[in-house]
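Entry for the shared binder. Reason: the reviewer on the internal report wants the predicted structure included alongside the sequence.
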Amino acid sequence: MNRNLKTTLLFVLLLCLGTTVRAQDNVVDEVVWIVGDEAIMKSEVEEARLSALYQGRRFEADAYCVLPEEIAVQKLFLHQAELDSIEVPESQVIQEVDFQTNQYIANIGSREKMEEYFNKTSSEIRETLRENIRDGLRVQEMQRKLVENIKITPAEVRRYFQDLPPDSIPYVPTQVEVQIITQQPKVPIEEIEAVKTRLREFTDRINKGETSFSTLARMYSEDRASAISGGELPFYGRGQLDPAFANVAFNLQSPDKISKIVESEMGFHIIQLIEKRGDRIRVRHILLKPHVPDSALVAGMARLDSIADDIRNEKFKFEEAASVLSDDKDTRKNHGLLPNPRNNTSRFEMQDLPPEIAKVVDKMEVGEISKAFTMIPQSTGKEVCVIVKLKSRTNGHKATIAEDYQRLKNIVLEKRQAEVLDKWIREKQKTTYVRIKESWRHNCNFKYPGWIKE
């Protein structure tokens, strides 16, 4: 964009500091901030406020001071991201949009209530989310680039820890390591055939034009996250899907054809193609899960209790049983040790454990093996029988260099990163044109006072 055109646009924005009207709904809107060549509209701030209220956020200061400043800071990073040609994959954006939309619908109650809450149609909400999520991901990537070269030495960690007042030393909550053995209860053949028969009936009804795939997905699919949107999934690459599901989905050639029945870890599906885009695909599906009878759960727990007794009687070790007998593929190769995806270790704070496991482990001694119980893993949504062993427990304590070096290092790293980003924002303010409508800066105590230069 050339300098004359930028000047013209800026002049137009300045004129817009008066009041404008959105034609689509006759809602009075206005430009309240200008940051560089970008305007911050009153409606943009209001949408951010509604989203914050939805998330339960509380403001220590006036939201109409805090939120515009946060949006302004984001625009500084976005401008730099534009200069540095930073982009994010559209597939990641769409996946986040789908997830957030489904979260809104699930928490607010229905698609209609969501539209009423935000005073927008579903398509308008999705488009707003798409823009905001794309911007947010680009801001994150820009920030990551600005701090990627920061390194922390052991000497810096020790110095940070030594300089901390005793009452400021971080408290490390209790952490545990847990080993697990699971048994998948056997589902009767009759139940599996009943599920397949229902899916064949769905396919027949769709092919005869009696109803649509989306309608049946909303009514019957047991993947409730996608059922809300008619069974639609976001764009996925082959490697992001269950292999059996992916093989069938990627072989679909026409939206008019319904797939054969496919079994995945989640259950049984039929699939309909929506769109292919390069090496990514978007489909809708209907998932049905065979019902596990109580007798199968009782038998599964009895078998695990027998295995636990054999371990207690030293016939074999828990680690050996987990490697050979467990149905849990994620832990079987690691002697049953449960991995924590949040920190890439085997250590869990109690609130990070699956709730069924946390309740059992909370009362156990190190080395103890539990009685059998049932749980529903998030990864499959299918009920399994479980025994666990508490491998280790580190009680809550004040952090020490010897025991908690990595945690302290992360604290120092985050502190350094925050300082670098803070300095960058303050320097960027000096070279960026900013105009704030008088009524929107009155009595505002901004975090970064450099917005107001006069």
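Summary line for the report: The two ends are 28 Å apart (CA to CA).
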